[in-house]
Amino acid sequence: MVRFALLSLFLSATVFSADKPNVVLLYADDLGYGDVSCYGSKTISTPNMDRLAAEGLRFTDGHCAAATCTPSRFAMLTGEYAFRQKGTGVLPGDAKLIIPPGRATLASVFKSAGYRTGVVGKWHLGLGDGGLDWNGPIKPGPLEIGFDHSFIMAATGDRVPCVFVENHRVVGLDPADPIQVSYKEPFPGEPTGKANPELLKMHPSHGHDMALFNGVSRIGYMKGGKSALWKDEDMGDTFTAQAVKFIESAGKGPFFLYFAAHDPHVPRVPHPRFAGKSGMGPRGDAILQFDDNVGSILAALERLGLKDNTLVLLSSDNGPVVDDGYKDDAVEKLGDHKPAGPLRGGKYSAFEGGTRVPFIVRWPGRVKPGVSHALVSQVDFPASFAALTGQKGPESARDSQNVLAALLGDDATGRPELVEQGGPLALRQGKWKFIPPTPGPAKSKNTNSEIANAPQPQLYDLSKDLGERENLAGTTPERVKQMAEALEKARKPAE
C-alpha cells in the first residue's frame, strides 16, 4: 500500500508539472459490456469506440457505481456511494437538485485546477430547489456545482419536460406559451398515450403512457412550450454539436467536458440515417448513433490539434436493458446478441452485468495501449482526477479512492474492494463477489431483468465463473462470513 501511495504521489507531481491535459468523459446511457465490438460483440460494429480502445487502455473490470442512472451519476460526480444519501433513487423530471450547491464535485475539482468545465446531455440529478417554474431561471443546477456551461435535458427522453435547458433557461421557449409540468394529474385537452394510442408511432410496453409528443408517450404530464420541444431523432446530433461547440470555445486553456449521451436509453428514436442499419431494431440503431457521436467528438479533437493532450474516458452509467418500457422490437430482433456479453444481469441488477460496463481511457503518449484487468470504478473519479491535477481529493468524496495509477495503466490491481449497488448491495474483493440474502423477486416484473435477490447468500469466484452461475456460499462459509462483515462495515456511515 505504501508503494502504491508513493507511486500515485509521484505520478500526480509528474503530471501536474507538465501541461494539464484536457479531459473528455464520454458517457453512454444503458450501454452494456457486450454492446461494443471491442468487448467481443459479433453482432454489432462500433468502429469509433473500437478505435478509441485500440489507441488506449480497455478495462475488463471497470464499473459504474450503481445499476441505475441517477445513483450512478450522483456517485460519479460526488465520489460518494448514492445508497448513503436518501432521495438518490431514479428521479422524476421535476425533482429538485440532489447535489447541494457548493458541494465538491468532479466538475469543481477541475474548476479549482483552472479548467473550463462543461456538461452536455442527460442530467437526471434534479434542478431547482423544489416547485420549479420552467419559464424562469432554472437553478440551482449544474452551474451551482462546478460547471461553467451546461446544455442538458432535465431527466430522460421518456420523462417530461421534453425540452433542453442551456445554463439557466429553457432553449427556444416562447413566453406566450408557458410550460406546465405535473407528475400527478393530466392537463385537460392534452393528448396522452393512454387516451390517444392512434397518435403513437411507438407504443409503450409498460407505463410510459402519459404526455404524448413526437408520436411517443412519456412518463409525466406536460403542457405548453411547443416551440421548445425536442425532436427525438435529432437529439444525438444536437448534443454532439453542443459538445463540439464547447470544445471549440475552450481555447488553449485546459477544459473538462462531461458528454452525457442519451443513447441507447428509451425511447430509442435514432436519426433516419441510422434507422434499420443495425438489423437489431431501434436499440441497435441507437448504439450505432452513439458510436457515430463518439467519432464526431474525436474528430473535433483531432481537427483542433487537441488529441495528444486530451485524456478521453468512455463508459456507461449502468448495464444494459432490452425492454425498458416501449414496444420497439428490441426483444424480437435481439437474435444472438448478448448486451451484457459473458456477464449475468444488466440494468437494475447486483450481478456483474449491472455495473461492469465498457470503460476505456485514451491519452496518447501517456497511456500505453492495451488491456487492463484492474478493478476500477467511476466513484473514484473525483479523487483520481484531483490527483491528476495536483490536488487533494475532496473530503466529501468519502468513497472515492485515488486509482490514477490504474487509470493510466501503471497499476494492474486497482481497488482492493468495491461495493456494487444493484437491487441488493454486493461486494467485490479481488476475484470474489458476495451478494447477501435479500428478499424480493428474482426478476423485475416489467423488464424481466435479473435483480439478484435470493433468500440465501451468494458467493462467486469470478476468475472461474464470470457468469455467476455456481454459488459457492455453501462450501466456503468463512469467506461468506468475512465478506458479509466487510459489506456491513462498508455500508455504515463514517464515524
Give the total of domains: 3
What name is given to the CATH topology of the largest domain? Alkaline Phosphatase, subunit A
Quickly name the level 1 CATH class of the largest domain: Alpha Beta
Named CATH architecture of the largest domain:
3-Layer(aba) Sandwich
Average predicted local confidence, pLDDT = 95
Can you offer a commentary on this structure?
By secondary structure, the chain is an alpha/beta fold. The chain folds into 3 domains: 2-170 and 231-414, Alkaline Phosphatase, subunit A, CATH 3.40.720; 180-223, no CATH class; 418-491, Arylsulfatase, C-terminal domain (2-Layer Sandwich). Helix content is 22%, strand content 16%. The chain is built from 10 helices and 20 strands. The chain has helices at residues 2-17, 47-54, 69-78, 106-112, 235-249, 281-303, 352-355, 381-388, 404-407, 477-491; strands at 22-28, 57-59, 62-63, 116-122, 149-153, 164-166, 169-170, 180-182, 212-213, 216-217, 221-223, 255-260, 310-316, 360-362, 370-372, 376-377, 417-421, 425-429, 432-435, 458-461. The strands form 5 sheets. Strands 7-6-5-4-12-1-13-14-2-15 form a 10-stranded mixed beta sheet, sandwiched between helices. Strands 17-18-19-20 form a 4-stranded antiparallel beta sheet. A two-stranded parallel sheet has the order 3-16. Strand 18 and strand 19 form a beta hairpin. Helix 4 packs parallel to helix 8 (381-388) and helix 5 packs parallel to helix 6.
